[in-house]
Amino acid sequence: MQMELELVEAICGFQRTIETLDGRMLVVGAIPGEIIKPGDIKAIRNEGMPIYRNPTEKGRLVIQFNVKFPKSIPTNIIPQLEACLPPR
Questions:
Q1: Domains, the chain, with CATH or none
Q2: CA gap 10, 67 in Å, rounded
Q3: Could you tell me the pLDDT band of residue 43, with boundaries at 50, 70 and 90?
Q4: Which of 12, 15, 54, 61 could form a disulfide with 48 if both were Cys (CB 3.0 to 4.6 A apart)?
Q5: How far out from the chain centre does Cα 15 lie?
Q6: How would you classify the pairing of strands 41-44 and 50-51?
Q7: Core vs surface per residue 58-87: b (16+ CB within 10 A) or e
Q8: Over the stretch 18-39, which tens digit does the pLDDT of each residue have?
Q9: Which helix (H) or strand (E) holds 5?
Q10: Average pLDDT over residues 38-57
Q11: Cα–Cα distance between 51 and 71 in angstroms, integer?
Q12: What pTM was computed for the model?
C-alpha cells in the first residue's frame, strides 16, 4: 500500500491506523526523530496477503511512503528552520 505523509509527519513522527484485509485496525507509525524520506518502505510481518497454499500464514504488508512538501514557506520562518536543520 501507499501512505501519504505531510512533511511534518515525515520529520517529527506520526501514528496512523490502517484497516487490514481481514478488517482489523493496525497502528503504523514512526517515532519522533525517525526520518521518513519520499519512497521509503516499511514492511510489517504477518499482516500482508495470505501465503500461497498456506492460507493460515500471512506475508508482509509493505507500505511505501509519499511525502508531501509545501508549495512555499513564508520567508519570516526560514531562519527558524535553518536553526533546526543541518547546515546547507
A1: 2-84 (2.60.260.20)
A2: 7
A3: very high
A4: 61
A5: 9
A6: unpaired
A7: beebebebebeeeeeeeeeeeeeeeeeeee
A8: 998 788 999 999 999 899 999 9
A9: strand 2-6
A10: 91
A11: 42
A12: 0.82
